[in-house]
Queue: 3 jobs
Job 1
Amino acid sequence: MILFKKKFTYKKSKSCKILVLSKDLTLKNYKNINISFEIINIYYLLIALKNFIFKNKNNHNLKSIYLQIYLLSFNPKLIIGNNVDLRIFRIKKLLPDVTCICYQFGYVTKSTAKKLYKNSKFNCDYFLAFHKNDIRIFKSYIKSQFIVTGSIKNNFTSKIYKKRKYITFISEYKKIYLKNMKFKKIEYIKYIVKCLEEFCKKNNYKLLIALRSNRNDKNLSRKDEINFYKNLLKINFSTNINQNPYRVAEKSIVCVGIHSNLCYELLSRDEKVLFINLNKSLYPPVYQIRKKKLIFIEKKSKTEIFEKLNKLINLSGTSWKKYSKNLNKIYFDSKNIQFLNLIKKSLNR
């Protein structure tokens, strides 16, 4: 039972104007509380149970009543969450008088939006999107005031410009890969990292794997992910243990990925990124990236991979910035000025 996986506490909440619903977001500029959905507060659960039995005119379920009572106990003015776990939309329905800001968690396509939202209609006060193209998709499912802010997580990390002789592969490892090596994507990952291994060996570069297990929201074993790549590679490779993935990528001459959201975020930071997408129907490229032949490969060709890596490496910083300006990138708002101004505006209402 899910209940036995929960932790329990028994204490009254302290007042806080801002509640954050997502593990992946850290707000340093304002006092806030990150709400853990793995912890049940017995004090408010007992109140919810009483209301469920004796005051439930709207026939809400116990979970909804508990959430409503528990979150209102903080006396919040603003609640922030992402679009993927759907919590922010459910809470807006429970607490219509509290301002709710939803931020886009990852890139979206028509098919992924349909799968996530189905035929439901959601509401929130503000929706912070990566790109104007994404808003067109979200408007079919979400009623909100849309603002193009880029990636909130990406924006909070300032740029640095210290390069080393690294070629970085953006890992797309999943827990299930260790149990079943027959997944088609494993074949793609193996082919790409073997090509990068050979390129690095021939040209005296260090191969670095940007681990997915470094992210708290992924709940992956770092040891298992490293062993996965050790089984694929013969040469020693570096990893970004305990390092911000944006920082690791910025140390690299070129970053290589399949269709990770991080690749698109790095492009917005003017980093050199090479997409090697060997199944574009399964992993549809977004933001018209497929049209950009210098940074997009869609077939198995070691020769083409080596040629494009060399072209990107030899392209001067000035020439790359000129090329990068013509890409249909997600927006980059350094230090999240728009987001922080919106928080300030919401708190001063």
Note: The longest helix spans residues 184-203.
Job 2
Amino acid sequence: MQFDSAPLLPSNATLPGQNSDLTTYQLPNNSRIFTAYGIDTPHPGTVDVYDFAGTGKLTGVNNTWELLAWGTDTCGDEYMLIYETPVAPGGDPAGLDIESRVEGGPSAETLEATLAAVRGLGSKELTRLVGNVKTVPDNGARRGLPPVVCDESCRENCKFIYFDPLRFLFLVWECLGDHG
């Protein structure tokens, strides 16, 4: 999984500070790259809190995410900790994401210290989410590849896949004529 955020261009004069939000991922042992794209808008009156709104086939899919911590781990590699509200309507539950610029994530020492600090906040919800943190498998298939360029097909979310845990199946949708 890779997350790429960049200023939205051209910028929106009525909603300054918007970012393009692109998450790309693959299923284990599969070379096909799936995308999820939307727009992040700064949440009014807050710092480091954004409202995500999907575009194209994900129009109406939204949530709010907050950057809780960021910096470098004990090895000097960049990482960040994000809290996400549940995805509406009826999507993924609330979660904690720990993302890193290096394969394998932040150092074990930094990971443990970060999770201990979250537990130390005294929030039942965040403490519960710490218990759900799992490493996302990485088979190295994208090692050395450049970031995905988000074209019109990407912005329409034509290569999107969703895992439905209640039915234990993957739902894939594509735009007509888009099989690349």
Note: The chain has one domain: 2-174.
Job 3
Amino acid sequence: MIKAIMNGCNGKMGQVISAICKEDPQIEIVAGVDLYDGIKNDYPVFPNISVCDVKADVIIDFSNAKAVDDLLVYSVDKKIPVVLCTTGIVGGTDGAGKGGIGAGSSIKICEYVAGNQSADAAFSAGGNDSCAGRI
């Protein structure tokens, strides 16, 4: 079973992905990350990815462009692949030198950027070859 962290778990897409995963025996959301804590989830929710201490195989991200730098620093440090679906990332992130987009993070981890696409469309299009077989 794939163990996933849902970054942006209490947003609209985070809740949709959580519900889909709950019905799929091949994946389990083991932790969530969201500043908003007004929704009850079946997994622990952390206010920031940097304080998440739950082990996972992948991070699914539907958060906020402002959260991407910390997410990529965490994923590089923990060596966890990321499906990055956050919108609003223009020209990379401020993470250059911290492991952000454009700073070689996709060389260190599997980083699949799927902006404004459904997961099916993104994966059927081939995506990032460095992610083949890892997500």
Note: The chain is about 25% helix and 20% strand.
